[in-house]
Structure formats: structure tokens, C-alpha cells
Amino acid sequence: MDTVSSYFKQTAQGHLSITGEWVLANFGELKQLKSELSQALDGAETIDFSELQHLDTNGAYLLVKYLGAERIESALDDASLAPAFRALLAVVQQSITEAGEHQPELKQHSAIALWLDRMGRRTLDAKNEAVRWFAFFGMVLEGMCLNFLQPHKWRLTSVIAHIDASGYQAVPIIFLLNYLIGAVVAFLGATVLEQFGATIFTVHLVGFAFMREFGVLLTAILMAGRTASAFTAHIGSMRLHEEIDALKVSGVNPIHVLVLPRVTALLVSLPLLTFIAIGAGILGGMTVSIFMLGISPTLFVEILVDKVGLRHFLVGMSKAPIFALVIATTGCLEGFKVRGSAESLGRQTTNSVVKCIFLVILIDALMAMFFMEMGW
């Protein structure tokens, strides 16, 4: 049975003839011939190129792929193939052969090797991130020192606006969260201590926990989720709209205009919010102690003052400025990393929150060990 198409035809006697125009304009149709031409080649005894009208590099590439190296070698000796087509097929076949010879061998790596490679890359990325963070933090400290030497450069309006947004407006959620957690801590502590007849030590537990750890830590985590993300989103949005580039062109330092007011505002806000958080947590514990344990407010305060001590309060408050610097610096830095798309803005905002929470918990753990070793 004869097989006929625009680009080849086969007779029942096993004669295959390549016909038509094997050029780029017909590349889509030629690629679809693979299965048909393969079937025709299986029964072909001779191949004729006398009816091939036009051939370019793309068509020659497909012919070499379809016919195979052995048939192409025979075709190059075929008198029916035009000299120009013969030269083109020879060059294409040689190029394909050389490309196959020089193709690098894919090495098979074990799962352990791949895991080590991945961990190594992540370690290098973490190192680069740390270097970038400290460099940015250095620029922030430099700007703050210059502003202290030149007080007229402080942007008080911007600082007050950020204190309102990151501090004053956060008071309700800070107070409510710490009040509830203080009540939960007191309830759980009383439940356990009741078994030993030591429910009075619930006061010590609540005071110690909130003055040293919970007050500042919960506040910092909330600020990481609330304020750091806002800093990143705002600066990142300005980055998308090329407003930061406009500031640089105008001769204005973005660090002084965008970063320093935010850092200063959080340095003021976070210690005050921490103080409110400690008070709210203790108030929550006092509420549970009054209604469940029968401890009077006067006795609660007396135990808190006499037994817990001021040093625990000072230890907790000393962490607040450090957390403020870390949260504000990280939030602003991630905003400057935004590049060209809303997807990048969302990714950096997420990174900002995750990094801030991680750094806050890490620094809190290190400081807790330091204070315990110092006996503070």
C-alpha cells in the first residue's frame, strides 16, 4: 500500500522518497511526521532525495534525527541528493555527533550527598544573610549617632506617627493577650501546686514568669507579627513604585528618612508595651488568685514585692530595647529586599515575620542563660 504526504511518499515496493520543503516554515508539521515516517522507514529498502525541493538547517536537523546516522551516511553518497543539501546534512550530522560526544556525564549522587550539598548551600545563604544584616544594622547605628550629634535632623513628626501606629494602637491587644495568658499560667500553676498544698506559690510563679520572660517575649513576638510586617510591606511597596530610587536621586538618604524613625519609634514603644504586658499578666494572675485561691489583692501584692524582687523586673525590661532594635532593623531590611513584583513583596513580608520571631526567641534564650550564669 502506498503512503503519501507532503514531505515523503512510500510505494508498495519499499521505495521511500523524501519530498517537499523541509524548512522552518513547515517545522510544526514536520515534527508531527515522526511516527508516520518511522513506520515508513521500517519497510523502506531505498531512499530517494530527488524530489526534495528545499532544505534548511531545521529540516536537516529533523532528517538526521528521523533517518538515523546509518541512513544519513548512505544518503550522503546518494547521487539523487543535491550537493547543497548534501553539504548541509553533513554539517548538521557532524554537529549533532560532536554535541553528543561532549555532553557531560550526569553523575548519580546518593541521598546523603544531596542532603549535605543542600545543607551546605543553606549554611552559606545563612552566613550571607547574617553579613547583610550586620552591615545594615551598622548603617542604622551610624545614622542614629549622626542624628544624636545633629538633633535638628530628627524627623519628630514621623517618629511620633510610628509610635502611635506601632505602640499606642497595639496597647489593647498586648494588654488582652497578656492578661489572658497570666490567668492561664496562674490557673495551671495553682492546679499543680494544690497537690502539694503550696497554692500560695502561684504568686511567685506568675510574677517571676512575666517579669523575666513572658511579658517581654510575648510583646516582642506580637510586634514581630504586627509591626515588622508593616515596616516590610510599607518599604517594599515604596520599592515597587520606585519611590526609594526617587529619594536617592533627590539626594535623600533612605536610611535617615525611612528606617531611623521606625527604629526610634520601636525603641520607645516596646519598653512601654513590655511594662504594660507585665502589669497585664500579673493582673490576670491576680484575678485567678482572688476568685479561685482566695488570696486577697493585698496579700498578692505583698508577696510579689517581698519575694519576687525588683531584679527580675529589670532583667525583663533590659531585653526590650534589644528586641526593638532587632525587630525594626529586620523589618526594614526585608522591605529593601523587595524586587519588582507583588509576589516578592509577599515573600519578604513572610520572611520578615519568621526571621524576627526566630531572632527574638534565640536572643531571649541566650540572654536567659547569661543572666542565670551571672546570678541575676
Task: List strands and helices in order, with pairings.
Blueprint: E1 3-4, E2 8-10, E3 15-18, E4 20-22, H1 27-31, H2 34-42, E5 46-48, E6 52-55, H3 57-76, H4 83-102, H5 111-149, H6 156-166, H7 171-193, H8 202-240, H9 243-249, H10 254-293, H11 297-308, H12 310-336, H13 342-374
Parallel strand pairs: 3-5, 4-6
Antiparallel strand pairs: 1-2, 2-3
Helix pairs in contact: 3-4, 5-10, 6-10, 7-8, 7-10, 8-10, 8-11, 8-12, 8-13, 10-12, 12-13
Summed up:
The chain is mainly alpha-helical and 376 residues long.
Structure description:
The chain has 376 residues and is mainly α. It has 13 helices and 6 strands. The strands form 2 sheets. The protein has a 4-stranded mixed beta sheet with strand order 1-2-3-5, with helices on one face. A hairpin with a 3-residue loop joins strand 1 (3-4) and strand 2. Helix 8 runs antiparallel to helix 13. The longest helix has 40 residues, at 254-293. The radius of gyration is 37 Å and the shape is elongated. The mean pLDDT is 83. One of its GO terms (molecular function) is phospholipid transporter activity. It is a multi-pass membrane protein. This is Probable phospholipid ABC transporter permease protein mlaE.
